[in-house]
Amino acid sequence: MHGIEEGIDIGKARALVSNIDNAMKNLHLSLEEACAGLGTTKEAYLEAKEQAKEQAAKRAKEQAKERIRAEAVK
Asked: Which has the least CB within 10 A, 44, 45, 47, 70?
């Protein structure tokens, strides 16, 4: 996947994780209850959470590289 499609998938993953995390916290639900209430599965949640985690690590690495390049230009 590339570009816009990848961005959309990442956004959906983040939204799913956020919605389930908020349901668990605010409604005092278990992971299974929150997933069922939002019409998804625990497996889909865990996959989305891993995808979001990988993307965050990738973004942090890219930002670090950019900072290094900016410092080298100074």
From this structure: 70
